[in-house]
Specification:
Elements lengths: L1 H23 E9 L2 E4 L5 E4 L4 E3 L3 E4 L4 E6 L4 E4 L4 E8 L9 E14 L12 E5 L2 E5 L3 E7 L20 E2 L2 E9 L2 E4 L5 E3 L5 E3 L3 E4 L4 E6 L4 E4 L4 E10 L4 E16 L2 H5 L4 E5 L2 E5 L3 E6 L2 H4 L15 E7 L2 E5 L2 E5 L4 E4 L6 E3 L5 H4 L13 H5 L7 E8 L1 E6 L2 E6 L3 E4 L4 E4 L1 E2 L1 H4 L5 E3 L5 E3 L3
Parallel strand pairs: 9-10, 22-23
Antiparallel strand pairs: 1-4, 1-6, 2-3, 2-5, 5-8, 6-7, 7-9, 8-9, 9-12, 10-11, 11-32, 12-31, 13-36, 14-17, 14-19, 15-16, 15-18, 18-21, 19-20, 20-22, 21-22, 22-25, 23-24, 24-27, 25-26, 26-29, 27-28, 29-30, 31-34, 32-33, 34-35, 37-38
């Protein structure tokens, strides 16, 4: 009887230990292509297979030519590249305690891509951190790739492989950035999703920028063009392509409502036909210049006749030139607008005509001219790099890359770089970061999964 009692007690202990182990598991291994090794806190090392558990303190190690996917309990998915060492330094996730969420990863070698789960999206926005070299990556609910490069152009994984063609860098989808904002500024994407824009926030092709009442903002573009948006303005970046390497230069901008002050960049100065500025049914042809444009009343409401009158030229569509010259074109004809002249679409004829008496509200516009704001192109749009160091590319969401007291905000399509001395935004995503974006893993049963899915 005593022996039976002892056996039953030992059995309960084993069951409790197993239950605790299951409870303390941080996640599980998904598909593996090649070999994944896990080193435990106690120093033991073992090769793992799909569905194996991973725990806080584990070091995940991929072999050459190997990829592995790990899914954490909160839904975070990670795909680890070949020759990588990734440690789960801390992990805490309980459904009933969002404020206690915590995940800390450390990348010691190689790289990985992650799509974050619930940690960082609920309760504690600073709950997800990744340490790599001298930098820390703070996550705000996102999809991003990280690589530690020990050699130039990150050829660490290729050291023993046959020479390959160097991947070409990918242009950033960020076409503009907020230089100045006073009051409220937001962007509406083509899917009608709104987001608030702060100083330094990115602008993408297809965005409609919207200022609130008593608000204004200044936006800089990649070709060094700039636009000031007045209060109550809606301004759409219908198309913007600027890639010197591919000789791709094309911009279509549209003022839907309100007023803007514009300084054209390289596209407007060097290739006039590739730069179009539209308001209602009219187009402003550019000759490399600075001008104010407005679209009020019938122009803003979408009326068939967007014109204004000489008595009230601001109630309609018009332009005022303060540098260079423009051509105002409508279905009724065209009119060349010289320096310090203004023109409107005449309401009675639909033709562009000169404004005889320019209102003080035009000549004394209180919104800052965009060329009056200091412009640091490298700070706004980055510079090149292929040097050894840490690279972070954001596929979606927002990442804060920090090093000491310095920090760098990265948004969709942007890549940041850090070494022991430098923290900077890159103008393009290096090719070696793009080559891991569409990794598809296949298990022994032929099932496939794509990272980020």
């Amino acid at each position: 009887m005593k022996t039976a009692t002892l056996f039953f007690s030992l059995l309960l202990t084993v069951v409790a230990t197993m239950a605790q182990a299951v409870e303390e598991a941080a996640g599980r291994v998904g598909n593996i292509s090649g070999t994944l090794v896990v080193q435990r806190v106690d120093g033991t090392v073992r090769v793992v297979v799909p569905k194996a558990e991973v725990f806080a303190g584990d070091m995940l190690i991929t072999a050459k030519d190997s990829y592995a996917q790990v899914e954490m309990n909160d839904g975070t998915k990670m795909t680890i590249r070949p020759n990588s060492n990734l440690r789960i330094e801390a992990y805490q996730y309980r459904k009933e305690a969002p404020k206690d969420d915590n995940i800390v990863l450390r990348l010691l070698r190689g790289g990985f891509r992650t799509v974050t789960g619930l940690i960082g999206k609920r309760g504690n926005t600073d709950a997800y951190k990744l340490h790599a070299a001298t930098a820390t990556i703070g996550i705000r609910g996102t999809d991003f790739s990280t690589r530690l490069c020990a050699t130039k152009d990150c050829r660490d994984d290729e050291a023993d492989a046959k020479p390959a063609v160097k991947p070409q860098p990918a242009p950033s989808p960020v076409v503009g950035r907020v230089m100045l904002v006073q009051g409220e500024l937001s962007a509406r994407d083509p899917a009608s999703r709104d987001r608030t824009l702060q100083l330094g926030a990115p602008v993408y092709e297809g965005d409609t920028l919207i200022t609130g009442a008593k608000s204004y903002a200044v936006v800089a573009f990649r070709d060094e063009g700039r636009v000031s948006l007045q209060a109550g303005t809606q301004f759409r970046v219908e198309k913007f392509k600027y890639d010197k390497a591919k000789s791709e230069e094309n911009a279509i901008l549209r003022l839907l409502k309100g007023g803007v002050r514009v300084v054209t960049g390289f596209i407007g100065r060097t290739n006039h036909d590739n730069y179009r500025f539209n308001l209602a049914t009219a187009t402003i042809g550019i000759r490399g210049t600075g001008f104010d444009a407005w679209c009020n009343g019938p122009c803003a409401s979408g009326a068939g006749n967007p014109g204004a009158t000489q008595g009230n030229p601001l109630d309609g569509a018009g332009v005022y030139v303060w540098a260079g010259e423009v051509v105002l074109v409508s279905p009724g004809g065209s009119f060349s607008v010289a320096l310090q002249q203004a023109a409107i679409i005449a309401r009675d004829t639909g033709k562009p005509v000169r404004v005889i008496a320019i209102p003080p509200a035009v000549t004394g516009n209180s919104t800052p001219r965009p060329d009056s704001i200091p412009f640091d192109f490298e700070k706004l749009f980055g510079t090149e790099s292929g040097d050894p160091g840490l690279y972070v590319t954001v596929h979606d969401g927002h990442v804060v890359l920090s090093m000491g007291e310095k920090s760098l905000d990265l948004f969709r399509g942007e890549t940041g770089y850090a070494d022991s001395h430098i923290l900077k935004l890159l103008s393009e995503t290096p090719g070696f970061m793009g080559d891991s974006m569409d990794i598809i893993l296949t298990d022994k049963h032929g099932n496939t999964c794509m990272i980020g899915s």
